[in-house]
RNA sequence: GCGCCCGUAGCUCAGCGGAUAGAGCAGGUGCCUUCUAAGCACUUGGUCGCAGGUUCGAGUCCUGCCGGGCGCGCCA
């Protein structure tokens, strides 16, 4: 039995009491059934009586007794105790809990998935690093976390489009193009240009494709380096994302919004809606109407449009593509962007609370040997996502980046991370999976298939460690659901660490396979199912994080 | 100055109003002729930054302070 099923039983019990007239309240729909920390408090506990005490106008413990009485009569419940201030401590009937092992294996990949967001189309934008250089280590966090959030939303049934916004318009792209041109022609790095070694690589690639490029006039050269260079840079970024296990569905060009006239149209639309005005020679969007700190410029006095102007067009484009919700993940260095973006959405006539969600994640702190490293594209002290992957591998990198709350700043010391790969909890989790895989291989070698689900005597799983493991497995769907709701993939990681620990302790205490000439018993089979169920949950959980579940280590 | 985030064990961090606050690492002591020891058991370690408030109950919510990070451009 899962906590969800038990919650339904509790609801049924409350309803029965109301029916009977022993309790005068409305049946709550937000009641909580959870696994108590202390095993003496039963398999599950609920605070429903404490929540109902006030509406019922009776002491919590009295309400608890009433509900407990109804609950005891239900199927699958062994005992119900009233404890403390009014908790109901519930112990499930033999077998009701163990049956979960069979249910999990049967559900397989579907275990933990829900339909909570079925029918919702979500556009999820993350990373979106400028195509003026490779993705550095700061962007790696958003790659790991953003993709995991996408997987979580998908696990909740949402239709997710992963999107990368390519800032291929504007001044920084001009600087990039001029830097390429300078590198190709042997000139020094321009003022405010980019000087990393990758610039020379890209420049050489452009020249390889267009050997005569350096013979053209200045403007034509810069033009060619801009187009070819950006395309090559985007290719490189795409490759590093793919190598990291992140596949974007859409690579959206900012420049295309200008080329198609979408930016002009967006400004026109906002003007028609009465939110645009002119002052000091510039065109402004009156975002203060919608709670922003100050109004924002769309077109500068020199006639150039701002980044914000293309954002207006970009948002409208996303909505026109049919997304119900636009989610954007940004680093804390862009937190000032939230207010104006919400205002923009409101100005278009949408409700920001419904259609927009901006997730802010704290920045990574890059260290080397304990010393802070200041990254500079000019000085070449840039540390790349690929450097991290080369050092510790995709699994370890993704896991380490995703296991921290995005509200928390994290230190990445490539030296330390490289040296201490065995300290990365990912291996603890993966090891549990490899261990089970090995055990199931051995079982197969002994001619011990799992067999028919109906034949499993789940009631035999009565050992304390077995119960711990079953309860942990039962939690998984709730962990996924809440992690998805909170956009907090780190919760899945932390859960997996607990599950792995629970499994290791079970493994230590409960022999699964017969040794020597021992006989195969129904308990052997039941435990095999329990192991298989654990492997399923470890796989499903790791999959949410984009981390592999190895069969051997 | 204003906005957002953080402050929990020696270190790095979990803890979406619940019972005796947890994990990893670091330190100490044990456990492999039997399913993977990348494991397990035991053990050391806490004014949950400080002060008020809200309530049956606060690490969690509110207010004010202290300390740290980020942001407050006709930059991106």
Brief summary of the model shown:
This protein is α/β, with parallel strands linked by helices and 553 residues long.
Mind explaining what this structure looks like?
The chain has 553 residues and is of the alpha/beta class. Helix content is 50%, strand content 13%. Strands 7-6-5-11-12 form a five-stranded parallel sheet, sandwiched between helices. The longest helix has 26 residues, at 218-243. The structure holds one RNA strand of 76 nucleotides.
Sum up the structure in keywords.
alpha/beta; 4-stranded antiparallel β-sheet; RNA-binding; 13% strand; 20 helices; 553 residues; 5-stranded parallel β-sheet
Secondary structure: number of strands = 15
Fraction of residues in helices?
A: 40-55%
Shape: globular
- Lateral arrangement of strands in the main beta sheet: 7-6-5-11-12
Report the major sheet.
5 strands, parallel
Mean pLDDT: 92
Class by alpha and beta content:
alpha/beta
Question: What distance separates the N and C termini?
Answer: 33 Å
List the total number of helices.
20
Uncertain residue segments: none
Backbone CA Rg: 29 Å
Which strand-content bin applies to the residues? 5-15%
Topology:
Layout: H1 3-20, E1 33-34, E2 44-46, H2 48-56, H3 60-72, E3 77-83, E4 87-92, H4 99-107, E5 121-125, H5 137-155, E6 159-166, H6 171-184, H7 197-209, H8 218-243, E7 250-253, H9 254-259, H10 262-272, E8 276-279, E9 282-285, E10 296-299, H11 307-320, E11 325-331, H12 337-347, H13 352-355, E12 356-361, E13 364-368, E14 371-372, H14 385-392, H15 394-402, E15 410-413, H16 414-419, H17 425-445, H18 464-485, H19 490-509, H20 522-545
Parallel strand pairs: 5-6, 5-11, 6-7, 11-12, 13-15
Antiparallel strand pairs: 1-2, 2-4, 3-4, 8-9, 9-10, 13-14
The structure holds one RNA strand of 76 nucleotides.
